[in-house]
Predict the structure of Peptidoglycan glycosyltransferase RodA.
Amino acid sequence: MIDLKKKFSKRFDFVLFTTVALLCLYGIIMVMSATASLNRPRLIKVQIIATILGLITIIILSLVDYKILGNFYIPIYIFCNLLLLAVLIFGTGDKDWGARSWLSIGGFAFQPAELAKIAVIISVAKMIDKNKKTINQPFVLLKVLLFAGVPIGLIAIQPDFGTAVVFVFFVFVMLFAAGLKLRYFGYAIIIGIISLPILWFSFDGYQRKRILNFLDPEHDTSDSGYQAMQAKIAVGSGKLHGRGLFKGVQTQFGYIPEKHTDLIFAVIGEELGLIGGLILFALYFLMLYRLIKIAKETKDTFGSLMVVGIAAMLGIHIWENIGMTIGLMPITGIPLPFISYGGTFLLVNMICIGIALSVGMKKEGLKF
């Protein structure tokens, strides 16, 4: 028993766990400030409860053999697609956010696309692992892409293009880590460029407006470009030290839309300034570094690819969310990991960290 405890303390990544816990604490504080003027204490309670449940889930999952997930990758994949199909039939959200992305069961609402991130990472990692020796054969690659493409397509037609892009990104990173030849990525870029006109005409009106506002920030600052403009004003006004928690003018007087979810980095920029932003960047860098370290040190292809997918998924979320807040990316409904309000999103991210820690625990054959 003592020997087991020593192995656990030696192989459990306390740095990663502590970093995630600090990010969650940072998120609770910022959600508290962002919602102070909304008089909705329930939002804070949900975030705190989700954080506690998430931390417990991380510890439990770290003790479970991640290979069990690989044994059930087909049922996981089927269940994920059934949920996404259910969204298209019974889902809600199109009136408020322009996309039918939510399911409500017994008064509990959640986004199946968030759960699908875990399912796709697990199932695609296992599919690549089963075909790792022949992944560069066109037929095998096409089989993997079609396998990954089904849930991505179901998300795209909600329509939730921003989330679909997240899936495409982490799947491509997983394929790159698996040794896919660079020429295939070149082909993908060429196909992407050729299909841009088709993609443009497939967008809804609000999606086109967001891209036009990104290309020309002064295009429509009173309507479709309002979010982006107010976010940049908030971040710029924070300067070095920020205005102080609960003292942001743009934040507390309601100029920033979705300030506790998609645009929470604008709250950080205004109230905590550049220093607050750099602290957040440091925590994210440390988290991603520890995930990449686990992936590199893991000899099992399935486990390594899962952690690569998790790191890529979190990384693209961070880049897109902060990028859209400061004008480097178009506005999309992509939240900030561990910081933005959202019980489902937070728990999904915590489950991903638990899976990564499980991979790290088993990389040298530790058994329980």
Q: What stands out?
A: The chain is about 70% helix and 0% strand. The beta strands are 103-105, 108-110. Residues 264-297 form the longest helix (34 residues).
